[in-house]
Design a protein that fits this description.
With 146 residues, the chain is mainly alpha-helical. It has a single domain, classed as Di-heme elbow motif domain (Multiheme cytochrome fold, Orthogonal Bundle). Helix content is 58%, strand content 0%. It has 9 helices and no strands.
Length: 146
């Protein structure tokens, strides 16, 4: 019995890590998947009209890049969002969480490190997130939600 429990726990952990494997990650990361929820359509549409569409997909900005943390974060937020959608608890004004803000800021630093070597980390010494000033990059507020 203990062996079966250990196997089930291991399979569960491996399945969470599997969401970051390239074929599955690509399938669960792009605008086709993220935009399949009708609530997300306005944000996906704004991304399609941004410069980021050429170089970044949804997860490049919204999911941690490292394997373990990224897999667990993606599994957690994806499950939470799916549950909220199924139960009809989608908020009218879609706001990023505090932890989500940290992830996005970290990913801004990751992709724009050359520029930020000159400017410095905007969060140093009680500063603000990159997207505080660059609020409309790549998502200007969808019509009727600003």
């Amino acid at each position: 019995m203990k062996k079966l429990i250990l196997i089930l726990i291991s399979l569960g952990l491996l399945s969470i890590l599997a969401v970051k494997l390239p074929p599955l990650n690509n399938m669960l990361d792009g605008p086709e998947f993220c935009g399949s929820c009708h609530f997300m359509e306005p944000w996906v549409e704004t991304w399609y009209h941004s410069a980021h569409r050429e170089v970044a997909s949804c997860g490049d900005c919204h999911i941690p890049h490292d394997l373990v943390r990224g897999a667990f974060y993606k599994a957690y937020t994806g499950s939470r969002d799916a549950l909220e959608t199924i139960t009809g608890q989608i908020p009218r004004s879609f706001l990023i969480s505090g932890h989500g803000s940290e992830v996005v800021h970290e990913n801004c630093l990751s992709c724009h490190s050359d520029l930020l070597r000159i400017v410095g980390d905007t969060k140093d010494e009680e500063g603000v997130y990159c997207f505080r000033c660059h609020r409309n990059t790549p998502h200007p507020p969808p019509l009727g939600m600003d």
